[in-house]
Amino acid sequence: MEKHPLRWWALAVCVLAVLVDMIDNQIVAVALPAIHRHLGAGEAAMQWISAGYALGFALTLIAGGRLGDQYGVKKMFLAGMGVFTLASLSAGLAPEPGLLIASRVVQGVGSGLMVPQVLSFIHTEFDEAEQPRAMGLYAAAFPLGGLLGPLLGGVLTEADLFGSGWRAIFLVNIPIGLAGLIGALATMPARPGFLRRRLDFGGLALLTVTGFAVFYPLVQGREQGWPLWSILMMAAALPLAGLFALHQRRQEARGGEPVVPPSMVRMRSLASSLLVMLTTQMAIGVFFMLTLYLQLGLDFSPVQAALSFAPGVLGIVIGNALSMNLAAKIGRPFLMAMVAVLAASLGSIALVIHAAGKDLNVWQILGPIILFSFGIGGVLNALFGTAFAQIHPQQAGAASGLVNTTAQVGQAAGIALFGTVFFSLLPDHGYETATVRTFLVSIGVTLVALMLTVALPRKQPAQNTAHAPDPSSARV
Asked: Distance between CA atoms of 454 and 336, rounded to whole angstroms?
């Protein structure tokens, strides 16, 4: 396949889309008090204004990836960006909580259609020599968005641009979305989809039900004290997942187009990368508790708390750059070292919090925050590269959706786990002890991730450069 001359410009548009997605996942948290005052949103509504986006996003990722395989990456990217932009306008103009919640869910759906196309684009448009750099730019968007989201949310809400107040956090997406649509139209190649047969929409529906049984209780169970229904839903996810796996095997045996091809999941590089990604993303969830500690325990403003994490950008840039140059050459030992850095940085933060107590300031956690960001920048880049090493272009959408969904499950599970630990300790032990002990649990999760790295290939497999047959001549 001939290299597209504007592929790097197109990648810039794609990375911008991922960055905006990650920002929007976080931006609403600091604006919730203002939304509560202006719209009269109750406690449950405020939870859903925050969680609705994550739910819509997570449930759409795999479907979005496979729809890109079916209809083409550019078409689905444009569709996702269009849905996201219109939903942002609806959220920014919402007169009551119900419409705002619905708009947030649709925003997540738009992102779920859009984001998987980026990894597919990188895998199919860049050769083996270019992919580490392209993957590094993509990987950097995730932690950068997580850092910038709360900061921008606080700044835009307090700035009250043109009297818009909290609405600015959604309306700012309109010019960005329009720029993304124009940029994608101008730079992305309009290649047809790879799939030869109609996608398995029955399997897609079964997967969505399974995902809902996992995500809904994860985002709502902790807030409601883990009621019986939340436990039963998560338990039901296991037989549903088994039924989905059986359905996918039958689809593949009949020569159909399964949503998640079983032969792809059996690839060691992908399966082992997903395990490490799940646990590392769980560990990252502890930073939600650190944000609560800074604001509720130490009376930091939302902007002050966000600025405390801002120096992490430096660590992300360095970690990404190192991973671009060394991850493929060194292989598994590089990832093991980066995960060990994560564990050490989490331990450092816990020690600083314990030693400083109420006198904790930004400068004391500066080094550990940069060290953590350095580790996560290196880990994500290397994991993306390893996960896609053996993936054919025809499988890029399915693999992209699976990788992104795993990251979302990890983050949701991490916040649920650490939130349960933190809030159970808080009444008897106070903010400082609750935070330190929660970080100790996160270190344990990171050490599990470190042990799981032994399942990774010792060396990153050579990139699979086999191209799909011409879809125009292969359709039946």
From this structure: 8
Q: What CATH class does 264-461 carry?
A: mainly alpha
Same fold for the pair 1-194 and 264-461: yes
N- to C-terminal Cα separation, the chain: 22
State the pLDDT at residue 462.
Answer: 58
Query: Which listed CATH number (1.10.260.40, 1.20.120.450, 1.20.1250.20, 3.30.43.10) goes with 1-194?
Result: 1.20.1250.20
Tens of pLDDT along 249-275? 888 888 777 888 888 888 888 889 999
For all residues of the chain together, what is the average pLDDT? 83
**Dist CA 22 CA 186 (whole Å):** 24
Q: What are the structure tokens assigned to 225, written together?
A: 């004290």
**What's residue 196's pLDDT?**
65
pTM of the model: 0.79
Identify the CA nearest to 241 among candidates 203, 278, 271: 203
* Contacts for 417-426: CB closer than 8 Å, 24+ residues apart: 417/282, 417/285, 417/441, 417/445, 418/285, 418/286, 418/288, 418/289, 418/442, 419/222, 419/288, 419/289, 420/222, 420/226, 422/289, 422/292, 423/222
Residue 255, phi then psi, degrees to nearest 5: 80, 20
Q: Hey, where are the domains in the chain?
A: 1-194, 200-256, 264-461
